[in-house]
Amino acid sequence: MNGMKKTLLVSSAVLLGVSVLLALAYLGVAPFSVKVGMYGSESSRHMEYRFWLFTGAVSAPILAGEGESLVFKMDAEVRGGYLIFEVVESDGAVLWRDHVRGSETIAAMLPLEEGLYWIRVRGMNARGSFKVSWLLVSGDVELGVPP
After folding, report:
1. What is the distance between the alpha carbons of residues 29 and 77, in angstroms, rounded to a whole number?
2. Nearest to 24 by CA among 119, 106, 124
3. SS3 call for 24
4. Domain boundaries, the chain
5. Does domain 33-138 match CATH 3.40.50.150?
6. Looking at residue 28, what is its pLDDT?
7. Spatial separation of the C-alpha atoms in residues 63 and 67, rounded to whole Å
8. I want to staple 55 with a disulfide (CB 3.0 to 4.6 A). Which of 23, 34, 85, 141 is the partner?
9. What gap in Å lies between CA 66 and CA 42, rounded to an integer?
10. What residues contact residue 57 under an 8 Å CB cut-off, 6+ apart?
């Protein structure tokens, strides 16, 4: 095989590989994160981000004590793609999940057992913003809105 054919073959293989990765990113099933124009902030009780393109995940740990419940609220503005909001147990099992397209507010209260949990927001070719706030409460309380 001469040098020209070898270069053409390698170039074709690289182009095919890049095309496949871009297609996976567009479909939201890429094995990597794409965060274009993403900025925001996190604390021990909130996450807030704006993004031009978000495929991937951001998460925050929550350590629940005995008898505590998680109260959370999410505001999202999604102008393309979608977001998946999840509460995940330490073993990876999803305790709660909701999909967000468009403009939506979600609020809920989940009783938890003592242990480590994660609040996770996954973007699937999403454009827009979200803000998630949460707190842990003890005993029986009415659903409230975290600060």
Report:
1. 21
2. 124
3. helix
4. 1-32, 33-138
5. no
6. 45
7. 12
8. 34
9. 25
10. 33, 120, 121, 122, 123
For residue 46, name the pLDDT band (cuts at 50, 70, 90): very high
pTM listed for this prediction: 0.73
How far does CA 118 lie from the centroid of its chain?
11
What pLDDT is recorded for position 121?
96
Centroid of chain to Cα 41: 14
Residue 138's identity, in one-letter code, is S
Average of per-residue pLDDT values in the chain:
84
Which residue's entry shows tokens 């999803």?
Answer: 94
Of the two residues 140 and 52, the one the predictor is more confident about is: 52
Q: Which amino acid is at 80?
A: G
Which residues are within 8 A (CB) of 109 and not within 5 positions of it... i.e. 6 or more apart? 69, 70, 71, 72, 137, 141, 143
Best CA proximity match to 130, nearest among 102, 110, 108, 109 = 102
| Cα atoms in the Cβ-side hemisphere of radius 13 Å centred on 123 | 29
Residue type, 119: I
Encoded amino acid at 136, one letter: L
Token pair of 57 as six digits: 């995940």
